[in-house]
Amino acid sequence: MTDAPSYGFDTLQIHAGARPDPATGARQVPIYQTTAYVFRDAEHAAALFNLQEVGYIYSRLTNPTVAALQERVATLEGGVGAVCCSSGHAAQIMALFPLMGPGLNVVVSTRLYGGSVTQFSQTIKRFGWTAKFVDIDDTDAVKAAIDDDTRAIFCESIANPGGHIADLDALSAIADAAGLPLIVDNTSATPYLCKPIEHGATLVVHSMTKYLTGNGTVTGGCVVDSGKFDWAASGKFPSLSEPEPAYHGLKFAETFGPLAFTFHGIAIGLRDLGMTLNPQAAHYTLMGIETLSLRMERHVQNAEKIAAWLETHDAVEAVTYAGLDSSPYKERKARLCPKGGGGLFTIALKGGYDACVRFVDALELFSHVANLGDTRSLVIHSASTTHRQLTPEQQKAAGASPNVVRLSIGIEDARDLIADLDQALAKASA
Ligand SMILES: *Cc1c(COP(=O)(O)O)cnc(C)c1O
Fold first, then answer.
1. How far apart are CA 329 and CA 308, in angstroms?
2. Which of 210, 222, 372, 382 to mutate to test the pocket of ligand 1 (most atoms within 8 A of CB)?
3. Whose CA is nearest to atom 6 of ligand 1?
4. CB neighbours (10 Å) of residue 418?
């Protein structure tokens, strides 16, 4: 299909990137389960290897099933291109890799998925990169953290686990003034609820493991490029603006313009880091995205009902859901996520750590798992699991204190979910 910008989200989530298979007419995107692609002749092969012609060489770099998914996610996010990779964490490295180098830093939000806090505070140091953690709501602290060696600002649109909404308009203004890209992890919101690029984000990263696939079947990630950042303007991003020795001195920014970041992600990132998404996983994610808007509507409806019910429950001290009338993020929700605050939030129990453990063990319909964004309702006690490696201060900043449980509300009957929560809360406070 020609991706006419006039098509609505519900149409694009089904059709973007997908065309009937030219060889067979197959209507669904085939799983191109192949490692390599036959070259027409030696000249064709040489042109492909020199990036003079776009095509398929080897599935570590490009694959038609994965390409369909890349086009679909890029279209839904309003970007010019996307690079899919093997996990959300791979996507974060793929986003930073062309920007960073030894001695350089990224300014990141303290309110992040626990695994991201660990990736940024520990593992990236091995590359000589550092992360400066700041309260992303404190715009003065964000500005103060930026120095000559900063190469990006990173935050989550709706933060896991607490459902806090980052003020993307304010953050992109700071990033623009400093000549830096703003990278937004849009996993918990999805492009149905939030469009970071419309609010000034340069790059959007996803764990497609979560809502995009939507049913807990695959691990996958994606980096979407807005195509709007001028990588050559400041001289701070030589990987994109300077001659690339591995491609005979080709300059990505000059040669590929708005697609420079995407081409670099494939031709250098996937080629050399090898964090490739396999075509079978891409197929599952394409299936999942077809119903994204329908699922997100129900996730939001259920989360709104359940959060409001929990807020009045005697055993519950606090509910963080941004979709509540009482939420401090009410204004941001209306501005950044007008269709809803997502399906993810935390509750603090009056009974503390012990009550949380009893509550999680007593739930029957909710599954106790380290995942979110499934059709099924899920629960986890972050402090004893996903956020276990964090210090008490990091746990508190991330919204994962010991008395806090994270709920990922599924698309079952809200009545049944409330009944399950009710019986488990009774056991937790007994
Ligand atoms: C799960 C998650 C990630 C990491 O994604 P994986 O696919 O598990 O590697 C990153 N960010 C957020 C917000 C997540 O929820």
1. 15
2. 210
3. 88
4. 16
Q: Is 342 in the pocket of ligand 1 (CB under 6 A)?
A: no
C-beta of 88 in contact with ligand 1 (< 6 A): yes
Query: 212 CA distance to ligand 1 centroid (A)?
Result: 12
| pLDDT tens track for 377-389 | 999 998 888 778 8
Question: What sign does the dihedral 287-182-81-51 (CA atoms) show?
Answer: negative
Q: Would the CB of 285 count as within 6 Å of ligand 1? A: no
State both tokens at 409: 């509300």
Superfamily, domain 293-429: Aspartate Aminotransferase, domain 1 (3.90.1150.10)
CA–CA separation, 380 and 384 (whole Å): 9
Q: What is the CATH number of domain 4-99+181-288?
A: 3.40.640.10
Indicate if ligand 1 lies below 6 Å from the C-beta of 116.
yes
CB 138 within 8 A of CB 132: no
pLDDT per residue as tens digits for the range 283-302: 999 999 999 999 999 999 99
Least Cα distance to 321 among 406, 382, 212 occurs for: 406
Tell me where in the chain the CATH 3.40.640.10 domain(s) lie. Answer: 4-99+181-288
Interhelix angle 414-429/352-362, nearest 10 degrees: 130
- Could you tell me which residues are beta bridge partners of residue 58? 36
Confidence category of residue 52, pLDDT binned at 50, 70, 90: confident
Ligand 1 centroid distance, CA of 207 (Å): 5
Beta 404-408 vs 344-349: how paired, if at all?
antiparallel
Residue 307 is classified by DSSP as H
β-bridge pairing 404-408 and 378-380? antiparallel
For residue 92, pLDDT over 70 is answered with: yes
Q: How far apart are CA 126 and CA 384, in angstroms?
A: 26
Query: In this structure, are strands 344-349 and 367-368 parallel, antiparallel, or unpaired?
Result: unpaired
With contact defined as beta carbons under 8 Å apart, do 107 and 132 qualify? yes
Which residue intervals of the chain bear CATH 3.90.1150.10? 293-429
Ligand 1 lined by 382 (C-beta under 6 Å): no
Please state which of the ranges 131-135, 268-272, 366-370, 397-401 shows the lowest mean pLDDT. 397-401
